[in-house]
Design a protein that fits this description.
mainly alpha, two-stranded antiparallel ribbon, Rhopdopsin 7-helix transmembrane proteins, 1% strand, elongated, 2 domains, 427 residues, 2 strands
Length: 427
């Protein structure tokens, strides 16, 4: 054999011979890849439906999350096809998948942006834009590899995690750091107050774990364990990334501020954001709120057309009923923090005990007919004026009787009777 024949034979073997890249033929690899694709597609469809049900109109962040989920679904169907549909479907759906990955980094920037300074925010989104040429090359390499043109994809694939995941890892670390530094809440308290937010934090950690496993798989660290060419870890990581976006649609600061406000309302204490510049004024903001609340409580009543003030103490025997007093107390505490002991109870008639609204049967009290109760029933509920002295307790009795009739607690009185016998006081 001539010396030239060996290089020609090697050239014909490596270049002229057409490679065949088809779906996995190993039963173990086929089952694992089919399970991973089914898991990814099913999870993304469910999350897309939940996002569509919870998203608010006009919020661009919610729309981007829904678009991210829809774009990632299509890369989970190529396992059903053979060549040439297999190669075309895998190559085209990879375009939408890569767009979804870049969109996820944009969503992460929008969610963590309130915690970032302006220079860090610009560096974050700027580097996301700078790596887009790699994804253009990755799309071409994917198409060329599965259409048996060249093997550039084998060289670009190990760099995929570097151009996809650093921003997500930074977002996760920044979120945990801000929770620890800015909010006086432990992770246990956050999970107890909002299990939804706890699920999001757990999904972030799981996504990073599967990112590490994906890197180990691409660098052949699991070569002896996994079937050749099968890597389910990036699919699991992608699902948990999308879960963090869909389970809490708003940005992280908005969600954490709501949790802190809920904690304040439950505990009656301030959990202050100590790094907020508005709080660095020696408590002046809190004092301002208290002064405004005091001024609102001390505001005089509106004058009547006569030029005199309308106050119940100007009219002997008249007193504001319990429901109206509780309504005023509710307005007074509207802009202030109220501890649970000071919160007013429900003022509806159903929450009142019978002894609170019905005069005692042991006293000798005059009781009027039901006709007065029918007239009183037409009055607005927020403007009831009860007469608490002994000369006007009959009005309370009529009100109680009408209330029992409306709520069905007692059968209505006979309209034919105009008066009722009065009990005699026991000696």
């Amino acid at each position: 054999m001539s010396p030239i024949s060996q290089p020609l034979k090697a050239f014909s073997t490596n270049v002229l011979t057409k490679r065949v890249v088809d779906r996995p033929t190993n039963p173990d690899g086929l089952v694992l890849e089919a399970w991973a694709q089914g898991y990814m597609v099913g999870s993304l469809i469910i999350m897309a439906c939940i996002t569509l049900a919870n998203m608010r109109q006009g919020v661009i962040l919610h729309k981007l999350i829904l678009l991210e989920l829809i774009l990632g679904i299509w890369h989970g169907f190529w396992i059903f096809f053979h060549n040439p549909i297999y190669a075309w479907w895998l190559s085209v759906s990879a375009i939408f998948l890569n767009i979804s990955w870049s969109l996820h980094n944009v969503i992460a920037w929008m969610k963590i942006k309130p915690f970032l300074s302006t220079p860090v925010s610009w560096i974050f989104i700027g580097t996301v834009v700078l790596v887009q040429p790699y994804w253009v090359l990755e799309i071409y390499a994917n198409f060329a590899y599965f259409h048996n043109i060249n093997t550039i994809f084998l060289k670009t694939r190990p760099w995929e995690a570097l151009c996809r995941d650093p921003w997500w890892i930074f977002t996760t670390v920044a979120l945990f750091w801000n929770i620890k530094v800015r909010y006086e809440m432990t992770f246990k308290e956050i999970i107890r107050i909002s299990p939804r937010f706890g699920i999001m934090l757990g999904a972030m950690l799981l996504s990073i774990i599967f990112i590490i496993l994906d890197i180990c798989s691409v660098t052949d660290a699991f070569k002896s364990t996994l079937p050749v060419g099968i890597n389910p870890f990036w699919k699991l990581s992608f699902v948990f990334k999308c879960l963090t976006d869909s389970v809490v649609l708003d940005d992280f600061k908005t969600a954490l501020d709501r949790l802190r406000a809920f904690k304040i309302s439950r505990l009656g204490s301030f959990s202050q954001d100590t790094t907020d510049r508005r709080a660095r004024n020696d408590g002046a903001l809190v004092h301002t709120w208290e002064e405004m609340a005091t001024e609102a409580n001390a505001r005089p009543a509106m004058p009547s057309p006569d030029g005199d003030y309308v106050q119940h103490n100007h009219f002997p025997g008249f007193k504001l009923c319990r429901k109206h007093r509780e309504h005023r107390e509710h307005r007074e505490h509207k802009d202030s923090v109220v501890v649970p002991e000071q919160q007013h109870r429900d003022s509806s008639s159903k929450s009142l005990r019978p002894e609170d609204i019905v005069p005692s049967a042991l006293e000798d009290l005059p009781i009027r007919s039901v006709e007065h109760a029918c007239v009183a029933e037409k009055r607005p509920p927020d403007f009831w004026v009860s007469l608490r002295d002994e000369g006007h307790l009959a009005e309370e009795s009529d009100y109680a009787q009408a209330l029992r009739e409306v709520e069905g607690q007692s059968p209505p009185a006979s309209p034919s009777r105009k008066s009722f016998p009065r009990r005699s006081r026991s000696p």
